[in-house]
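Long-time lurker. I teach an intro course on protein structure, and each term I like to show students one example going from raw sequence to a predicted 3D structure in token notation. This year I'd like something fresh instead of my usual example. Would anyone be willing to generate the tokens for the chain below so I can use it in lecture? Attribution to the forum is fine with me.
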Amino acid sequence: MKSIMNKKDFSLLAPFALCCLLFASCQSTKFVDNRTQILADGLEINASDDAFKLYDVDFSGGIDEKSGRSAEEGKFLFMRLYLPNYDNKASSVNMLKKLITLVDPNPEEASHSSIGFSLADDFYGLTLYSTKDLKRESCLNPKSNQYMKLCNPYTSTQTTLAMRVTDQEYEAVKKLIAKDFAEQKVKYWPTKNLIVGIDSLNRKKLPRSKSRLGGRKLKRGYIDPHKKENFFVCSTYLAYVLQSCIKSVDDYFKERNIGYDKVAPTDLYYIPGFKVLFSSTWVDYNIAAAEFARSCPQFEEYLID
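-- Reply from a regular --
Happy to contribute to a lecture. Here you go:
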């Protein structure tokens, strides 16, 4: 041990240990089943749920200058950002979630991210806690996922975003996710959080204009998406997938010298093209999705049972 405890390495030992603890197992969670409820248009909604929000979004527009296509062509790609909560307040995950929030350079809160192809409660995210690292995730059935079953679905929240992409880009993302899900070669690597965490802390010290995703000059930034590695955390994997399949994202990363290996969950809010649709607790995901689609009919076709 003495050989690794030199001055150069000691400064990294504490944050390294904290990042690794984030992914340690926490004690079992007791779900809170008593909720205050109201009925609205036949739908059950939490009366005291401040997380239940529908946002005004406008995906209409003219001709995109780069692609030359109408802004109303193509399909929607979806992303969910999570702020999980645990009844066991003394768990390592809860304490370190606060640490992540502390170093996060963005005003939003999220500690996990996933990607989907409709508004169905069926997304894909990269986590630990089972033999498969890339897993399907359901807010309404968290026990089907080793990571999500540790979370309280009544107090954990999610925010759903969407981006309009070309049909070809949409299919490319689906193909890549399907391939990675089948092969399970991409792995969640906890130490990668050290890279993201230190970079986030350094950015947090900068003015907001420079702390945003791509807001500062980096010596080593942009990574060619063709040079795929197999070790990620949830947000860096999503950034890699988006960059690999969507030209506008790759162009943005290249122009701003952004490396997908340093993208934090809340950074995903700032990838151009994504817009926030709605947010809710996990148990109200389907209700929020249905209410949003009713208020924005162009999304009705994405409500898949």
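Some talking points for your students: The two ends are 55 Å apart (CA to CA). The chain has a mean pLDDT of 81.
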